[in-house]
Design goal:
Elements lengths: L1 E4 L2 H11 L3 E6 L2 E6 L2 E7 L26 E6 L2 H14 L2 E7 L5 E6 L5 E6 L8
Parallel strand pairs: 1-4, 5-8
Antiparallel strand pairs: 2-3, 3-4, 6-7, 7-8
């Protein structure tokens, strides 16, 4: 998955310092981050064309809410890791929806990244212990 962001350095700081990603590789206008099996690309909105024909990404298209209508779900390995990440996020980010047990049997919480991409942090069903 690749997210187009306003400031790549701010986003790298958020994903690394808050969510525990690590820089996998970095180029002048692109950063690849990794956390376990999740790979996330970050590219600057500024590299996109101002406007274009068709449905591709453009700067004009991203002037509205980035990721509107999309929830990015990140799974961690278990409740202990989820709880630790939640506590870390409480100190460093604005939580949109507090930790809770959902009707589908998993715990999660939600927050937005610096560009407004909406993230749900949860644990895998195979690690659903202590429900």
């Amino acid at each position: 998955m690749e997210l187009f962001v306003d400031d790549v350095d701010v986003s790298v700081d958020f994903y690394c310092d808050v969510l525990g990603f690590e820089v996998d590789r970095r180029a002048e206008d692109y950063v690849s981050l990794r956390r376990g099996q999740v790979v996330l690309g970050l590219g600057p909105v500024a590299k996109l064309p101002e406007q274009a024909e068709g449905r591709g990404f453009t700067r004009q298209r991203l002037t509205g809410g980035k990721g509107a209508g999309v929830e990015i779900v990140l799974e961690v390995d278990g409740l202990d890791e989820l709880r630790a990440l939640y506590e870390r996020c409480q100190q460093r980010a604005a939580i949109s929806e507090e930790w809770g047990l959902r009707p589908w049997g998993l715990h999660d919480f939600r927050l937005a990244d610096p560009d407004g991409y909406y993230l749900r942090i949860t644990h895998s069903d195979s690690a659903a212990q202590g429900r």
